[in-house]
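WARN retry 2 of 3 for item q-0093 after timeout on previous attempt; input resubmitted unchanged.
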Amino acid sequence: MGLIAWLVLGLVAGAIAKILLPGRDPGGILGTTIIGIIGAFVGGWLSAQFLDRPIAKDFYDTATWVSALGGSLVLLIAYRLVFGNSRR
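OK item q-0093 returned
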């Protein structure tokens, strides 16, 4: 997959992560979007490095989407833990 495909995958994974973890984030929509993109890259890289799952060349590979979503969820949770929830 190319860089543009990973960016799109990150945007979608970030949106899904935001739906699964509702609430206000300290960075707003821009911060959540960036976290989604970074999470997609990190999830894909971790999957390729430690699970011996090569990054697919096909955009519609289920394992790639799951790893990107997992990376986005983990980063969004970590972001909320470090910077706090702005609901206060």
